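G., the chain you wanted modeled:
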Amino acid sequence: MASTPKILFLDEDSKLFLSLSEKVKENKIKLSLLHQNTLRGMLSNTIVWESIDVILINLSLPNLDIKSFVEAVRRHFFPDNVGIILLATPAQNAQIEEGLKLGAHHFLYKEFVSDTLILENIQKLLANIHSQQKYQFEIKKLLQNNTEIIEYRKYLDQQLSDRTKELQEVYEELLKEMTEHRELEEQFNTSVKELDTFVYRASHDLRGPIASLIGLSNLAKVELQDENAQRYLGMIAENSEKLNRILITLLEVTKIKYLDVEVTEIDVHELATKVKQQFSKDFMRENIDFQMEINAPDLFVSDRYLIRTIMQNLIDNAISFANKTSKKNILFKITQQENKNLQIIVSDNGQGIEKNVQDKVFTMFFKHNATSKGSGVGLYVVKNCLQKLKGNVTLQSEINIGTEVIIILPNLL
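Predicted structure as tokens:
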């Protein structure tokens, strides 16, 4: 609708038009009034009347076919929301009724109306047209938004379909990789088991010849009196003993790896005493002052074999790295913590371990210097035992001062 609405009068008589024009001018009403006295004149100026907002048509115009007129207005000349007011006489009620059915908005009996009444009806109709235009605009906007939403939904559906396809392809590829990885893992585990079986059997089979070699060396030392022979035989026996210990440790590693934890009540004091007695000759030979302190209940629930193995390897490791120059001390301490866990501490005043390699001492065959007497397997065995028992270990060490290993074992009640 234009800023100044246009009102077209179709009436042979111009009196009403002129009267309304004066009224509009007098009251400064924002309306533009146009007049045509014939239907032919209006129909021949369609370009001029394209922006008409309201038409007032006198049904008494000659040759007027109300149906043809309204259809022409709606289809060809004016927008759908142009307002039509019929000016008629009471005798033209049939035409009025037909016009209203065809789309006219209102009617006025010409002989009973005043300028004020006509202007009021025009302004009401303009207000209704404005509301209708606004409503149609909102409807159009909603339809447009709805179309955009539908198109965007189609776009999203396509994106979702494409993404789903991509994810399906990625999933299938990942599934394939997982299957291949699982197969490789199974092959690796099979290889590890085969290797463990080989190590176990080889270690077991080698122990017989090594034992024979140790026995023959000792026998030869009794029979042969030559000093060089005695020295060489002693070296053979010593290295054979060392190799035998390595084989025993390898057998332990394999056994522990596949061992099922056997939970039982353990007399901690009795077990620790037996482990101490096992190393009594080593303490005497190496001149080691071994101190044992036990402050724990006699009974502790765990795996006896694994705990004994932990104690043996910790003490054997402390003996292997004993101080060569000063008095050798080893403290073996067992206490029970408030949470019922068992704490085992083995400390010595031995060679100590450099800080930059302390995180490697629990790996297999690790030796932190060339003069180490140990096999490099003892602490690795301890770590495997702790993994079985869900325990943990910490190590503190300083060069030429000593090493302390702290073991925490949960009570498997």
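The chain has a mean pLDDT of 81.

Shout if anything looks off.
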